[in-house]
Amino acid sequence: MISKVFRERADHIWKSIIGHPFLEELRRGTLPKESFKFFIAQDFLFLQCMIKCLGIMEAKATDEDSRKLISDMKRSSESVEIEGLKRLGERLGGIDFSRVEYAPTCYAYTRHLLYTASLGSFVESVSAITPCYWSYMEIGEALKESPDPLYDDWIKTYISKEYQDLVSKIIEALDRAARGAPEEAIAASMKAFLISSEYEYMFWDMAYRKEKWVHPLD
Fold it and tell me: Is residue 216 part of a domain?
């Protein structure tokens, strides 16, 4: 299965993700709430971009099962996931999501996803979004729990059976899309998977440092 090959190639990146101080401190319950608040605000922008990508990908899907999966993911993102982030924002003292500006890494990662969804093949675009979903499942499995109730609730989302089933379906869609794809499409897909994996690491680091533009843009 091509998903296994991609995952093995990205293993060194994913190990770095799970060992990142943001997640280590989240597991211990010592992560400053301002860092988590920054993460949730940027994740809201990321999710809005993912919704756009899923809309593009739905039209490109090469089989009916994948088209239905992507349609369901888009619908869930527009309702359940957006509302979930808003509730987390409230628990963190309130976030005015309408005023959140892109941090550099979030901006770069979302442009990568939009570029791949718009100009890449279907297998390449699925490869680009898969690390986000798959790595969060592995993060949840590695962290397991946190003494902080807010962080513990966040972790539990990604070790739920519902989420694990979703990740399995995304991986299956990647493997289906790769069957019979030309060699150059597989090579591009591998690169997209690795780039997204690297951006996943950078996203956690961005949140931990509360990253800002070197030169203010306003």
Answer: no
Please give the pLDDT value at position 133: 98
144 φψ region: left (φ > 0), alpha (ψ -120 to 50), beta (else): left
pLDDT value at residue 102 = 98
d(CA 163, CA 76): 12
Instruction: Write the CATH number for 202.
Output: 1.20.910.10
Looking at the structure of the chain, the number of domains it has is 1
Would you call 145 helix, strand, or coil by DSSP? coil
Does any domain span residue 214? no
218 domain residue, yes or no: no
Residue 217 belongs to a domain: no
pLDDT tens digits for range 31-81: 999 999 999 999 999 999 999 999 999 999 999 999 999 999 999 999 889
Q: Which residues of the chain have pLDDT under 70?
A: none
- Through-space distance between the first and last CA atoms of the chain, rounded to whole angstroms: 47
Sign of CA dihedral 96, 100, 144, 146: negative
Q: Domain range for residue 190?
A: 2-209
Residue type, 137: M
* SS3 of the chain: helix, strand, coil, percent, to 5: 80, 0, 20
pTM of the predicted model as reported, rounded to 2 decimal places: 0.96
